[in-house]
Amino acid sequence: MKTKEELKLSFENGDIPKQEDFWEWQDSYWHKDENIETKLDVPHQDGDIQNYPKIVGLDNNGNVARLAAGDLGKNIANSSLTSIAGAGLTLGANWTLNTSGLYYSITGLADVSNDSTFDTFLSQNSLGRIGKTNGKQPFLNLPSTLTEAERTKWKTAMNGGWTTNTMSVAIITPPIVDRQNKNYWISLRGANLNLPSTSFTVEIMANNGTTVIATIPNSQVQLYTNGIDLTFYYNFKDLPIGQYKIRLWNGVAYYVTSLTINVVDVLNIVDISSLTWTKKIYNDASNAETFGNGGAAIYQSNSSVKPYSSTDQTIVGALKSSKINNVGDNFYLEFLVSFQHSANMSSGTQYVGLMNNASTVDLLDQTLTKIKTVGIVGNSIGYRNYYLNNSLVGTNGAGGSGGTNETINVIVIKNGTSMNVSITARGVTSQVILSVPDIEYSLNMAVNNMGGAATTSLNITNLYKF
Predict the structure, then answer these.
(1) Closest of 178, 186, 194, 198 to residue 227, by C-alpha
(2) Nearest to 454 by CA among 297, 349, 320
(3) pLDDT of 75-121, one tens digit each?
(4) Which runs of consecutive H residues, i.e. helices, occur in 93-147?
């Protein structure tokens, strides 16, 4: 067989090569000399990458290789890709990803909750543009997106579960203290005073409500979970004479009382030993066991005055003191009322409080302060209801089968034509604020008939003017 060069020379010399030499050379040229030993069949049918997973690739030098057909057309939108070292995406122009309402998720992120270097949020404006923020603007805008109930819930959660509803103080007792070297217990009564035990402050403020005069050590504050009461003790000996407000911090917000504590050099104590008493007994009968003396008074039942009866509501005894103030005087009055009677015998009612000194004592409820206690018939442990200004404020049992034998504490504060009245029975305190005339007042007690022997007594523990 002639070589390619010999065939070429024959053509140049005008010689016509033999046919078998030409075809043999052609076969050798295409299949041996140029290393094309096989050929691809011309495709006549459609296929898929599962059945036809390879395609032919060609490099710049004419070398061929098999490639994975599944990699053709692969991109971020139709593939589950895996990055390699150095991979990333740098935008060359604005780019928008429109989810068309479909879910768009980023999963598998590391938890960096405790990593202080992660202090930036992703944020979005109304057009959908995404940026980074330190959280200030979203935080400032948050309250306007919440309902009142949601704001309250959020504030409470932020305050460790303690309420952050608006605090209020309706009464401060005592409202006046002197500069003796002694601790005074100050009681606040109001609403939402259940401060968190780990985050609160109680401060004494100047009357302007902005200048802090003293901070009460937390160890001197007694907190209650009922939200109504808060007490603290403090020695006022170093404070200048004047009026002071109280500021409370509940971990989220401040509240400054509108009421004040008046610090004076010396309290104007009323001499209760000089009080005199008058009495009225049913049918003007004799009852030497019912009387008053100085700061104390006592009613003792007597069947000879009127036969005992569980259904007879007639008032059978009443007592009235001499006046405790002059017109224009403000005063603080605290006294104890004790009840003793058998169980399951009576719905007897006792009235205690203050009456108009100008009125004559009678067998009536003459108290302007409207404090009333009513024993319940048919209960073996002597339950008793308590009323302030004719409104039921509490029910407490006597705590034993022997009847009722208990004491309630009463505080009355007159300030102008306003009178704060509070009663504490079995650790439960109720209070009311009344509008009253600026007149002279006397203590008053009236008791109705019962189904057996009964005793009601009154003892003044504190009375001073301010």
Answers:
(1) 194
(2) 349
(3) 878 888 888 899 888 999 999 989 999 998 999 999 999 999 999 99
(4) 136-145
